[in-house]
Amino acid sequence: MKILFASSEAAPYKKTGGLADVAYALPNELANQKDVEICVFMPYYKSIKTNPEYEIEFITNFSVPLGWRNLYCGLFKAATAKDNWTYYFLDNDYYFGGRDSTYGDYDDGERFAFFSKAILESLIHMEYTPDVIHCNDWQTALVPVFLKANYCHMERFQAIRTVFTIHNIEYQGKVPDSFFQDVLGLNEYWFNVLHYVDCLNFMKAAIVLSDKVTTVSKTYSYEIRHAYFAHGLQDILQEYGYKVDGIVNGIDTDLYNPATDPKLFQNYQIGDLKGKAANKAALQEKLGLPVDVDVPVIGMISRLVSHKGLDLVEYVANDLMQMDIQLVVIGTGDEKFQNLFWRLAWEHPDKMSANILFDPVLANQLYAGADLFLMPSQSEPCGLSQLISMRYGTIPIVRETGGLFDTVPALNPETMEGRGFTFKSYNAHDMLHSVQMAVDFWSDKKKLAILVKNIMSYDCSWKEPVKRYLEIYRSL
Predict the structure, then answer these.
(1) CA-CA distance, 288 to 476, in Å (whole number)?
(2) What stretches of 125-187 show up as alpha helix (H) in DSSP?
(3) Is residue 178 packed enough to be buried (19+ CB in 10 Å), middle (13-18) or exposed (0-12)?
(4) What 8-state DSSP symbol labels residue 414?
(5) Across-strand partners of 422?
(6) Parallel, antiparallel, or unpaired for β 37-43 and 2-6?
(7) How would residue 421 be classed by pLDDT, with cut points 50, 70 and 90?
(8) Residues with Cβ < 8 Å from 414, sequence gap 6 or more?
(9) How far is CA 124 from CA 42, 116, 164, 344, in A?
């Protein structure tokens, strides 16, 4: 089976969020399966082109017709450690190779329309015809549109099936109606497929036209059929719900492994509380916090935006600072939340460490050194941080939404069933109560040792999710 995995970013070449981790780890696990050939297509960004560490070779170049334009596209590839797994890069200096940005430009719609069509156009110039094209989020949502509108008259394209994964429904790829003729240049038949409410909507079109739609957790696949979570697409998802399925993400358990992670102060095995305590002490010292084994460290690694639950933290920030805890935050985002954590760190230097930056080394050290990990998200399609924290023996405190609900069942302290502390309502004091329960539980070192061992033993790898994806690919 030949799978083409289309993504706007993929580790290790370009990463701005969890999509890049998925676009590396899922193909990696697919490449471990028998009779599977996987290739990943992504834009040839400036940061990739100018990095001398990457060994990337030129394959060919061709023109991509986009509306009234005929645009240059270069096709490059990078070898991987596995013969059945290849990265391909699509080059255009105007859209990707000459810019420092990944997203956020005024012409993002045009940039990723070009990328989507270039994926299909490149197949004409390759001896490769995939069985399935797996598209991810709005940046590749036009692939099913172009496939059916421009390429299905060619025999080699007629058997190709498409899977579309929604990683975050908040970002849908909305552009004005004028984009249809000016950029897409499609037959008028396709206008109603793309049009939704008062604009063109890439994601809506992908949901309508793809053979299968997936989300990154089972609960999220149901949540997004309701207005509170769907950002306007609830009617479309209810109509096409018969082809929507949820598969919870995994993580790369080789990359995130406390026994081998070179970023940690000290490596440790499953259930090794002494090794974990050594990381905690080193983390406290590094961040200028009092080195105190009897005070629990609560970690947060997040974009500092409201829907990650930061408004709940803001509402009870003073209450948190009255507790016998140390709070360590890593992330960047809205200025008001950055200022909140800076203020708390200034007022409570013995209880708060505000790290307003992106630092992957410090992040892994916090996963290992923290005792508890707080994720109070308003919505969370899957979430990776709770999986990573459990891998490192750090107990999650989460709101029951999306992938957090699927991966962190509430702990019963009597039977020791469950994996963390949860709250249901999006309410600051419910969150605060869960934090207090977790802190109280943490003081019972006998039960703590049992829970730490349990969560570190939890299989959060891609082995089970990849089986589900293969079932979907083969069913098409």
Answers:
(1) 55
(2) 143-146, 179
(3) exposed
(4) T
(5) 398
(6) parallel
(7) very high
(8) none
(9) 17, 14, 22, 57
- Identify the burial level of 60 via C-beta atoms within 10 angstroms of its C-beta, where 0-12 means exposed, 13-18 middle and 19 or more buried: exposed
**CB neighbourhood size of 420 (10 A):** 25
Token code pair at residue 293:
């084994």
Task: Supply 202's token pair.
Answer: 């890439």
DSSP 322-341: HSS-EEEEE--B-HHHHHHH
Which tokens hold the place of 282? 């080193």
Q: Which residues contact 153 (CB under 8 A, 6 or more apart)?
A: none
Q: Is 306 left (phi over 0), alpha (psi -120 to 50) or beta?
A: alpha
- The whole-angstrom separation of Cα 339 and Cα 130 is 49
3-state secondary structure of 114: helix
| pLDDT tens, residue by residue, 157-196 | 999 999 999 999 999 999 999 999 999 999 999 999 999 9
Give the whole-angstrom CA distance, residue 404 versus residue 439: 20
Q: Where are the beta strands (DSSP E) in 120-231?
A: 132-136, 161-166, 174-175, 195-196, 199-201, 212-215
Cα–Cα distance measured from residue 476 to residue 464, given in angstroms and rounded to the nearest whole number: 19
pLDDT in tens, 34-59: 899 999 999 999 999 999 999 999 99
According to DSSP H, which parts of 330-384 are helical?
335-347, 360-369
Distances (CA, A) of 125 to 63, 75, 379: 11, 9, 42
pLDDT per position as a tens digit, 194-224: 999 999 999 999 999 999 999 999 999 999 9
Instruction: Provide the token pair at 472.
Output: 């979907």
